[in-house]
Structure formats: C-alpha cells, structure tokens
Write a structure and sequence with these properties.
single chain; Dna Ligase, domain 1; D-amino Acid Aminotransferase, Chain A, domain 1; alpha+beta; binds adenosine monophosphate; nine-stranded antiparallel sheet
C-alpha cells in the first residue's frame, strides 16, 4: 500500500478515458502531475487533456504493465476494470484504492452483501439462477419487482421490471447471457439521492453535500444540491456512507445512490469512483470530487469541504446540445463542461452545465421555468 506523498511531477495512470478520467486529469494537471491514460479509443476525452495515451484494450495485460511501469500511482474512472489488471497493480503497490472496491461493485450480489454487512437497509432481494427460482422469488418478494443482471448493467440496461407473472419470461431471457439475476422489490420512493465522499488511506473521510437526482430514461438528468430532504435523512446518508466505506475499505472518491421513502433510506447502488451526481462540486465546493480523489490517491491531506448554499447540475445529452446553446445568452450563469466526444448520439452524455444559487428550491424552479430541467 502506497503511503508516501506523491507530489507534483509524479505520474498518475488512469484506466479509462471518458469524461470522469478527463475531469480527474484536469484536476491533476493544475496540481502539477503528469497523466497517462489507458483507453482503446485514440483521442478519447481524457487523452485530449492528458500528457500521454496508451491505446489498448482494458484487458491487455501487457499494456496495463506498461502503464504500471510509467506511473507512480494508478487509478480508474469506471468500475468494470478488468479485475486481473487491478490485482496486478495492487500487488505492485501502486493501486491505493485496491481491487476489493472493484470486485464488490462489479457484482450486484457482492454489492448487496456489502450493504447488508455494513448494517444498511436495502430493498428485499433474492439471487436467482433459473426460471423456477425467478418465479418463486418474484412471488415471495411480491409484484412489482425488478430483475437485474448481477454483472455488467448500467443506466437501466440489463434490467426488467416485473409487474406480473407475465413479465417473468422477458427477465428469464437475460439468463441466456448471465449466470445470475438479482430480483429486488420495486421501491415506491419519494426521491433518489446520492452521497459522494472521499476517504484517504488513513481512513479519514470528507463528505460532499447530499444531492437529489432526477433520472429520465434511466439516465441522470439533473442533480439538485442540497437534496430537498430532512436533516435526519441527510444524517442517515452520512452514516450509511461511513459504514459502507469502512466495511469495504474505500480509498478515493466514492458514491452511494439511495432511495428515500418518507424519513427512511434504502441503499441502491455503489460506485467506486467520482460520480455524475458529484459534478456540481467543481463549482459549488472549494474542492471538487476529482481534486479530492487525486489528493486521496497521492497521499495528500483532504481539504475540508465548504459549499455554496445551492447548486443544480444538468446533463447535456446529444439531443440537448442544440437547444441549450441556442439559448446560451438567456443563461449567462451556466458553467459549461463539454467532454470532447465526437458522435452526438441523442442519449449520449456529451457534457453538463452547473448553476450556483442561494436556495435549491428557487434555483430548481427557475430552471424548470426556463425548460433547462424537464419536468
Ligand atoms: P440501478 O442500475 O440499480 O441504479 O437502477 C437504475 C434506476 O432504476 C434507479 O436509479 C431507479 O430509478 C430505478 N430502480 C432500480 N432499482 C429499483 C427498485 N428496486 N425500485 C425502484 N426503482 C428502481
């Protein structure tokens, strides 16, 4: 385990070259680090701001070893890192985050176990491998429920909502490509929230304000900060973050998504990396989720977090680009982040915008009125 401080001039290797790697790199560059990214796509979003790119597949272990040779420390921007690569880097003592966070978050069964082991509330669930088990689990948990592949799903992919026995066949078809499914009770939540935090090697944690997330088509549309929930719900989110972080041994920036039902929370998903719902931290906090992550993995002290009273982040998907830039003059306070991606597919995340304000309710209402937020 790396415990020494890595100062400016050191080289950070990043596996994955999307927007999260790009924003990590921007933070690392202003602190004076060199950055090498490993990604199969030449000129990927991260490579455009990094010092160097190794163009290779994520499971190309020769390339991973080359990245290790050239880096003082390695991190990743997504959870589906090839586990063997993470184990090699951990054994070489240059992956302060370790492989365990990845092992757990790559598999919904292990992820749920970690939540339960941490003493945190989750929706009723069962792991199933056959049609019979699926039918039985859905009947026991009760409809509506949702079936998800244990590995490889994201943004609602690999999920089927089960409203009655008739939907079971569609879910069973996922078993053609997956060995296990998780069946969860469908939660009639009031809100979805997330907490992004950073933990260093010594176990100290800093928490960013809790965000309230609005999804459209299973993709994050907007994050409102602070979440419009009670102090007691915010407190529960903090306690859950601490318990889960300590159970898993998190290092770096990490995010937890939760459902809010009245005054109760249920933990939904873990992300062992900076998170889309934490992008607001770039302008709304004195240190961003990316800079704090770089500090954690380089052994620098974490900055105590101070935040503006309110922020709203809105994702710009391919379909949003033209309408937003057409009304740019009406939104002079929008901070613009574009990721340097080429093809503007309608539902692809191309960038985001962040607004700062004094009150989350007023700011949110203004953005709904201006149709920046879909309502
Ligand atoms: P996930 O990939 O598990 O984060 O799910 C993506 C989205 O699907 C979540 O953000 C929720 O909006 C919805 N969802 C997932 N699981 C459930 C559930 N058990 N009950 C209600 N909604 C869910």
């Amino acid at each position: 385990m790396q415990t020494n401080k890595l100062l400016f001039g050191s080289t950070i290797g990043i596996i994955g070259g999307g927007q999260l790697g790009r924003m990590m790199t921007t933070a690392a560059k202003h602190m004076g680090y060199r950055v090498i990214v490993l990604d199969p796509t030449p000129d990927c979003p991260t490579a455009q701001v990094a010092d160097q790119q190794i163009v290779a597949a994520y499971d190309d272990l020769t390339a991973v070893k080359e990245l290790a040779k050239q880096s003082d420390v390695v991190t990743y921007e997504f959870e589906n890192v090839y586990l063997q690569a993470a184990e090699i880097l951990e054994a070489a003592g240059i992956l302060p985050q370790g492989a365990q966070s990845l092992r757990i978050t790559q598999d919904r069964e292990l992820e749920k176990q970690a939540m339960v082991e941490s003493g945190q509330p989750v929706a009723d669930f069962a792991i199933v491998r056959t049609k019979e088990q699926l039918t039985e689990a859905a009947a026991e948990i009760g409809y509506p429920a949702v079936a998800k592949t244990c590995r490889g799903g994201y943004d609602g992919k690999g999920q089927v909502k089960l409203t009655s026995l008739e939907d079971v066949d569609e879910a069973v078809s996922m078993l053609n490509h997956a060995d296990r499914l998780i069946v969860e009770k469908w939660v009639p939540f009031d809100k979805e929230i997330s907490i992004v935090f950073t933990r260093n090697v010594a176990g100290e944690i800093t928490y960013f304000p809790v965000g309230e997330n609005i999804h459209r088509d299973h993709i994050l549309h907007a994050t409102i900060v602070p979440a419009r929930v009670s102090k007691s719900v915010q407190e529960k989110a903090h306690q859950a973050a601490k318990a889960i972080a300590e159970t898993i041994g998190v290092v770096g920036t990490f995010a937890i998504e939760m459902f809010v039902c009245g005054e109760e929370i249920l933990i939904n998903e873990l992300a062992p990396r900076p998170h889309n719902s934490g992008h607001y931290t770039i302008e709304a906090c004195d240190v961003s989720q990316f800079e704090q992550h770089i500090r954690a993995i380089c052994g620098l002290p974490l900055i105590p977090i101070h935040a503006h009273p309110a922020a709203v982040m809105v994702n710009l998907l391919g379909k949003d680009i033209e309408p937003f830039f057409a009304q740019l003059d009406d939104n002079p306070s929008a901070h613009i982040h574009m990721y340097g991606k080429e093809a503007a597919k309608p539902l692809r995340k191309m960038g985001h915008i962040t607004f700062i304000g004094d009150d989350p309710v007023i700011l949110y209402n203004e953005l709904v009125e201006k149709k920046i937020i879909d309502n």
